[in-house]
Amino acid sequence: MLELSSVSKTFADVRVLNELNLTVAPGSRTAIVGPSGSGKTTLLRILAGFETPDAGRIVMQGRTLFDEAVFVPAHQRGIGFVPQEGALFPHLNVEDNIAWGLEGTRQEKRRRVAALMEMVSLNGQLARHWPHEISGGQQQRVALARALAQQPSLMLLDEPFSALDTGLRAATRKATADLLAEAGVASILVTHDQNEALSFASQVAVMRQGRFTQVGTPFEVYSQPVDEATALFLGDALVLPAQLTAGRASCTLGEVPTDNPQAAGQGRVMLRPEQLLITPCQRHESGITIADVDFAGHLSTLTLKIPGQEEPMMLKTTSQPGWMAGTPVRIAVAGTARVFR
User: Fold this and answer.
1) Are 259 and 242 in contact (CB under 8 A)?
2) Is 253 within 8 Å of 273 (Cβ atoms)?
3) pTM of the model as a whole
4) Do 173 and 163 meet the contact criterion of CB atoms below 8 Å apart?
5) What whole-number distance in Å separates Cα of residue 124 and Cα of residue 137?
6) pLDDT digits (tens, 9 = 90+) for 2-52
7) Are 179 and 138 members of one domain?
8) What domain range includes position 333?
9) Using an 8 Å Cβ cutoff, are 210 and 193 in contact?
């Protein structure tokens, strides 16, 4: 549906995008996730036609949008764009915001707007309201309806949920994902929120310093990250030095199986918190003790003292009654450790 080949961009001698390659399937949801300054928004603006790359090729549905000889302007691309915080026109009511850019008679526009409002689950009574009279979540739905009004083949979402509170953000994100799937519109979400990327997308592209460090399904990039930086960016992780041999890793937690039977010698292994089961034990059984407990409701962060390890280990896990400083514990590992060399 959409193919990027070797797309690059430089601003004032700073390489912002460095030979990016990406394929977006029809009707799919892709999330581009990375820290601030990694190039995410620049890429989105290039896809929308608001910026021009220095090199590379962009093709959508077999039509070249950009190469060394072609540049299709934004209004001719058939791409929808939902900016951060919606960016509604404050001088237009909800109905006129959605109808902006639509062609046809006033009656035809009203029928189309009513259908779009129903599509994005907006009460028709809000049509005459001004943007400042509706909630943040409703504003985002209006912005989405306005973008869908143009019947785009691709929808670009630039951190559209970041201004919403936590509960509303999750509900709006789920509703948006479902709506785009039902409409059969492919989408690209740009975000710095790892949880948002993993829950929204069918494909996640992790971006760092203008490059994609890894592209894959949410499960692949989370459970099989290509390097430590990607692993730690995508969620809590325990990364330990280890001696590797024949698919096993000898580390401070004992001997654990790994995902790389060929790896040998010194290396580092990663475990996600959900792979670790912590249970109380007798002091002589483990030698690992809790030094501190930071309770935060469902989750607690444990500071653990481990024999032979100078630095304490910080581990976030499900809260349990009875945990306190000085409690001896045992750590069991489920699954395999990810090997980094």
Assistant:
1) no
2) no
3) 0.88
4) no
5) 15
6) 999 999 999 988 999 999 999 999 999 999 999 988 999 999 999 999 999
7) yes
8) 236-340
9) no
